């Protein structure tokens, strides 16, 4: 039986309590003293004799109660800790202040190819074939952030150490080993991709519906995907939605903008580097995005800006899934789907010999064309209202609405910067205005200023839809005589021919003018 003795603390009381059990010849196998409690494990103590022991212990000055318990708190804590360690998928090692392993979980034993008992007492650095690693750990006070790479039984890991502090000094530490793909999952979780899948891509125009339908089909096919479209159309959003709809959805999605980093840095970011490959390199080397995203997706934005050297290296990886780190001599194989995107005309670049033809065909197994905002004019106001709501929330101001003139200005604008430009225009307007409505002048658009300077006031209408329809009708009536076809008028307004044809038919133009 195990008992919990509650007492008023004083010198020698624990000794007197244990003496009572010894006098009754009860064998004690475990004692945990945690004032005002002393927990005792006496296997020979049974229920019939407990009452007599309870009475005897209460004669000791300071003893307040004696209660049977199912397990000692320290034992319970140890069992819970063992269960937690066993459940952790990453190798975990507890190391003492001398750099020797005290505790290892099952994952560490599996990777090391030894039992947990065999790991206990082993030198931490020698386990990884690097005796200096123990000194590095101790000298840094067991504070090492994830990034120190080590190799255990031929497998690369990134080391993260947290100190155990006793009396203000490190008394050892807990070391966690992350496989590169596991770190990639952590990086993926930190990315702000709250937009989700295709259902969060705003738009109900025919071009967007067609894009979503095609994207849903190619997402499920495990092959390279090339996304084409003007800058600001949301190519990365489409790429992430395809990843979310693919069998790789539970693995990392990591991105590299090929236009934002120089060639040497882009190479090490994508392929990683080996120990000592260049001055300033991390001790032990560093994995690249391909290793971090193992099992998932790597998104190469602005692939048209990639240097010829990196194009050749990427081509080899796409051929067989193998690569070498910068400065390394060991080939590695990873399972990664490559999704790329560009706003440039790759066909013309191939013809001009500035982009490898063989790489173009390897990347262009599947393709998507993202429509420009002017080709999906029916979505402009829907997107604008969404951006207004988000901007108002960010600015912590009451919601506001577009006036009819502002809506017309948004519809008439050519949007060379596409959705990104629209979002920036709305955010700036919301930030710089205080009213309940956003007018055309608030949008800081050339078209909006022209409408504002014209002095024309929209006629009073019964509803928002009526007012918008009146403006659309008036705009098309004014412009149609100068651009007397749906195609010419669509070119003038920088929007789709289909939308203009539908609007002309709706308002009976030209016959109904």
From TrEMBL:
<dbReference type="InterPro" id="IPR002078">
    <property type="entry name" value="Sigma_54_int"/>
</dbReference>
<dbReference type="Pfam" id="PF00158">
    <property type="entry name" value="Sigma54_activat"/>
</dbReference>
<dbReference type="InterPro" id="IPR035965">
    <property type="entry name" value="PAS-like_dom_sf"/>
</dbReference>
<dbReference type="InterPro" id="IPR002912">
    <property type="entry name" value="ACT_dom"/>
</dbReference>
<keyword id="KW-0678">Repressor</keyword>
<dbReference type="InterPro" id="IPR058031">
    <property type="entry name" value="AAA_lid_NorR"/>
</dbReference>
<keyword id="KW-0963">Cytoplasm</keyword>
<dbReference type="InterPro" id="IPR003593">
    <property type="entry name" value="AAA+_ATPase"/>
</dbReference>
<dbReference type="Pfam" id="PF18024">
    <property type="entry name" value="HTH_50"/>
</dbReference>
<keyword id="KW-0805">Transcription regulation</keyword>
<dbReference type="Pfam" id="PF00989">
    <property type="entry name" value="PAS"/>
</dbReference>
<protein>
    <recommendedName>
        <fullName>HTH-type transcriptional regulatory protein TyrR</fullName>
    </recommendedName>
</protein>
<dbReference type="InterPro" id="IPR025944">
    <property type="entry name" value="Sigma_54_int_dom_CS"/>
</dbReference>
<feature type="domain" description="Sigma-54 factor interaction">
    <location>
        <begin position="201"/>
        <end position="431"/>
    </location>
</feature>
<dbReference type="InterPro" id="IPR030828">
    <property type="entry name" value="HTH_TyrR"/>
</dbReference>
<feature type="domain" description="PAS">
    <location>
        <begin position="77"/>
        <end position="121"/>
    </location>
</feature>
<dbReference type="InterPro" id="IPR013767">
    <property type="entry name" value="PAS_fold"/>
</dbReference>
<keyword id="KW-0804">Transcription</keyword>
<keyword id="KW-0547">Nucleotide-binding</keyword>
<feature type="domain" description="ACT">
    <location>
        <begin position="2"/>
        <end position="71"/>
    </location>
</feature>
<dbReference type="InterPro" id="IPR027417">
    <property type="entry name" value="P-loop_NTPase"/>
</dbReference>
<keyword id="KW-0067">ATP-binding</keyword>
<dbReference type="InterPro" id="IPR025662">
    <property type="entry name" value="Sigma_54_int_dom_ATP-bd_1"/>
</dbReference>
<dbReference type="InterPro" id="IPR009057">
    <property type="entry name" value="Homeodomain-like_sf"/>
</dbReference>
<keyword id="KW-0010">Activator</keyword>
<dbReference type="Pfam" id="PF25601">
    <property type="entry name" value="AAA_lid_14"/>
</dbReference>
<dbReference type="InterPro" id="IPR000014">
    <property type="entry name" value="PAS"/>
</dbReference>
<dbReference type="InterPro" id="IPR025943">
    <property type="entry name" value="Sigma_54_int_dom_ATP-bd_2"/>
</dbReference>
<keyword id="KW-0058">Aromatic hydrocarbons catabolism</keyword>
<keyword id="KW-0238">DNA-binding</keyword>
